[in-house]
Amino acid sequence: MPVFDQTYQTLKEHLQQTAIFSSIEELLGWDERTLLPAQAGSYRADQMTVLAGLIHQRRTAPAVGEWLDTLESSLSTSHPADSPEAAEVREARRDYDRESKIPQKLVEELAKTSVLAQQAWAEARAQDNFAEFAPWLEKTLDLKRDQADALGYTDDPYDVLLDEFEPGETAANLRQVLSRLRDELAPLVAEIVATGKQAPVELLQRDYSIDKQKSFARFAAKSTGFDFDCGRIDLTVHPFCATLGPKDCRITTRYEENAFSSGFFSVLHEAGHGIYEQGLPDQEFGMPLGTATSLGIHESQSRLWENFVGRSFAFWEYFFPKLQLEFASTTRDIALDDFFFAINDVRPSLIRVEADEATYNLHILIRFELEQALLNQDLSVADLPGAWNEKYSEFLGVRPPDDAQGCLQDIHWSGGAIGYFPTYSLGNLYAAQLFESANSDLGALQDQFRRGEFGTLREWLRDKVHQHGRRYPAKQLVQDVCGEPLSHEPLIRHLRSKLQPLYGLA
Amino acid sequence: MPVFDQTYQTLKEHLQQTAIFSSIEELLGWDERTLLPAQAGSYRADQMTVLAGLIHQRRTAPAVGEWLDTLESSLSTSHPADSPEAAEVREARRDYDRESKIPQKLVEELAKTSVLAQQAWAEARAQDNFAEFAPWLEKTLDLKRDQADALGYTDDPYDVLLDEFEPGETAANLRQVLSRLRDELAPLVAEIVATGKQAPVELLQRDYSIDKQKSFARFAAKSTGFDFDCGRIDLTVHPFCATLGPKDCRITTRYEENAFSSGFFSVLHEAGHGIYEQGLPDQEFGMPLGTATSLGIHESQSRLWENFVGRSFAFWEYFFPKLQLEFASTTRDIALDDFFFAINDVRPSLIRVEADEATYNLHILIRFELEQALLNQDLSVADLPGAWNEKYSEFLGVRPPDDAQGCLQDIHWSGGAIGYFPTYSLGNLYAAQLFESANSDLGALQDQFRRGEFGTLREWLRDKVHQHGRRYPAKQLVQDVCGEPLSHEPLIRHLRSKLQPLYGLA
Questions:
Q1: Distance CA B242, CA B336 (A)
Q2: Complete edge-to-edge strand list for the sheet that includes strand A231-235
Q3: Which of B426, B492, B497 is nearest to B187 (CA)?
């Protein structure tokens, strides 16, 4: 066997063996967040710590670096630059370098601080006491600066942190695209507010039995293409999607009796993540080409199914009669038009996770600006609450009455996730670009949705996005599939075309 | 630090670190049997195999043998023979020797054969085709003979296999006690059959809503003392109890709408196992003294709560009014006396897992005799079905119409569990001995049950049995607590005193 093939095989075995441990770690985490008995948390932490240590050891084993050296030195003569093997080596190198560059001591301190800071954050939020969280945010930012230094960067430490979640993306590019987005979004939201028109959201707040919500949401997730032979849906507090093996993808959600849309759309959202995971090639499980390419692309899949499909009129032409059968007494007097308006309600609000499709990105923009300022020390931690509230007034015209509903609302920063928030907006932008391209490639998707057919779209996404794993970085993937780079225009077109008739805009 | 203490600490760290991996393996197995998506089985097997290899490696690491040598050489001068440390070293040595003596190749062949033989067994049972399973049973028996040779034995290869589940027990002793048991049981069952009296079991076959069964059984498990802050109850096909950490014990069950007693008593049974696990000392988790002492003692705990408590009249004096409140329309016309008779129905039957308290041990006796004969080659595999059916005629007066309801009904032999069955009878015998001693120590337990109080009994079991882990082998534990060795008499006394009035026996 040629040297490349032999070494490649050795590396693949090592990485896939490591994936066995990391998939077990996923099970431990999934179980912790869905089922773990109240007092079992401390031993679960021990189990996860031991496994994390073993995984880190395997990922940074010097042999991996040596195999990669060998592969890189023979790659150019044995494989084209755009071959799967070249992508696999490129991405394995990226992983190895990122994981090896950070000193063990810093890894441990980041892990420990993240646990303690999250506890402090939860406490601070519950008591609306920012001062209690402030020193932990300081410490987290210090460590993230150290991490950026260890990883190395050219212009901006933010870039290298963002790169963890969205490889190859830069703060400069995002600033440009997101500011264009804001220039269009802010006036759109203002126009909507100015109409004084309010969607009949009370229709969604009636008594929707939780058992029926469960079976209805399951039916919808199955219809869009989530494969329950290779996955599950369970209950949790904060919905998420976890992959425990090549045929074991688990989504989670929560239901409230008087909030139909909250549970239903969170299932469509998580099922979108799940369909992406289920579309990755099984035989590459644990390898870069068997892994999602970026958080932005991941979020584009969840948002596409949640908003572009699930909040479309055609979708409900199919599902609304079924909803009326299932929840007969609750929905008997509701007209489809009113229901459709209710699920597309737009109104400026304080809480990101409850925000609608139009205002959502303004919440992200605020966080994106603030976390850059914090990291670069243009904003002190002490001044964060004031700056947060100012931005909410400016961007959304609302002002948090307290920090619990302000800068303490999200868990991300306490867990050390700096550079994560913009991937939510990237998801929305990419979803719009991909959905526009799918419509133009496939035509008349709405006619299919109306009949409950989602297979054509799903297979298109499989073909264009899912099956490639990390073969193409997000930027290149979107350029190739959509014929244009990251852009705010498709999202704006989508929102305007849906919201203009609903709100009677000019 | 003295050599003993230092080495002891090192060994303890090693064993408790190993327990982290084996508790993760428990999670993988529990999840597989309760939640795993249909297609995820093959990767789950990979995950379990990798972890099993790692655990075996840690358990048989030569360093463990060296630490044990060191500890043993200084033990007699540093610690009394009956100290916890002496027990810990004795049991750790036992584990190390058993795990090290079997050659790696045989370990792997046993593991592989067990998976394949179980699949063949499931197929053979479904198609009532013993011939399909026969070669796998041959192969299993061959491997078990090899295993017995590797472990070494004095008289009987059966002893050393039995010893895996019931340390220190011998076939000779069991033959003696169980034949005495049979000499009393068989006439008792014959007397009952001769009365022609039939318990009104149809009362248990009405419509009992599954949701209500769940909450009622949960309430009963909580009342007997299963701690849901340190455990869960979930659904499965074959009920079991698994320990995933010192504060994470999970029991499982199944419910059928028209079989109230099946779900309810399986919960009491598994909760009994769970209460034992929850009573082991947390700080010794993963050490011999933090582990159950034998399967027989484990089964005694489940049987004690299921049969001696849960099928007692006093228990239902407390629970029956609650049952009537919960299942009002279903149970309104049922009298407590009739209900009590129904849950204590005795009738010879074909299927072990559905057998009542009196006939159950006759099912075990048949398996115990046959598996000894098979192992010693006094009985050929080909002759098993005929021998099985003969025994059922002789012991129980019923004859299986086919092998699916005959010698193919149980999974145990296909999984290589030879020497496991008698631990079920040991459980029944030990339960009777322990319950009789508890009654004599504590007095008037029935008065407490009648008021829904089970704490006194539970704490007595904690004190006498649970807290010791493997400090005392089962034989010694029972001798110490009950003042007598293994005996059939308390069980016979218990059965006679309950069944005589119900069936109007002399």
A1: 34
A2: A231-235, A248-253, A241-245
A3: B492
Q: How confident is the model at residue B143 (pLDDT cuts 50, 70, 90)?
A: very high
CA distance A305 to A266: 10
The C-alpha atoms of residue B293 and residue A438 are separated, in whole angstroms, by 63
Q: Which residue has the tokens 């707040």?
A: A205
Report CB contact under 8 Å: B37, A247.
yes
Render pLDDT for A173-231 as a digit per residue (tens, 0 to 9): 999 999 999 999 999 999 999 999 999 999 999 999 999 999 999 999 999 999 999 99
CA–CA separation, B95 and A489 (whole Å): 68
Q: Which of A23, A27, A39, A284 to mutate to test the interface with B (most CBs of B within 10 A)?
A: A39
What CATH class is the domain B3-101? mainly alpha
Rg (alpha carbons) of chain A, rounded to whole number: 23
Mean pLDDT of the A337-361 span: 97
Name the residue of chain B whose CA is nearest to A35's CA: B232
Measured in degrees and rounded to the nearest 5, phi and psi for residue B168 equal 90, -10
Nearest to B248 among A21, A37, A245 (CB): A37
Dist. CA B131–CA B120, nearest whole Å: 10
Determine the average pLDDT of the residues in B315-330: 98
Task: Please say if the pLDDT value at position A1 is more than 90.
Answer: no
Chain-centre distance for alpha carbon A303: 9
Ramachandran assignment for B232, one of left (phi > 0), alpha (psi -120 to 50 degrees), beta (any other): beta
List, by residue range, all CATH 1.20.58 domains of chain B.
3-101
Interacting residues of B415 by C-beta distance below 8 A, sequence separation 6+:
B114, B117, B118
CA distance A106 to A118: 18
Alpha-carbon separation of residue B410 from A23, A491, B7 (angstroms): 33, 61, 44
Contact B20 A47 (CB under 8 A): yes
Reported pTM: 0.94
Which DSSP state fits A245? E
ipTM: 0.93
Closest CA to A396 of A352, A431, A342, A345: A352
- Distance from C-alpha of A161 to C-alpha of A154, rounded to nearest angstrom: 12
Counted across chains A and B, CB pairs separated by less than 8 A come out at 85
**Lookup result for tokens 């007969």:** A328
Q: How is residue B7 written in tokens?
A: 């080495």
Question: Is the model's pLDDT at B506 over the cut of 90?
Answer: no
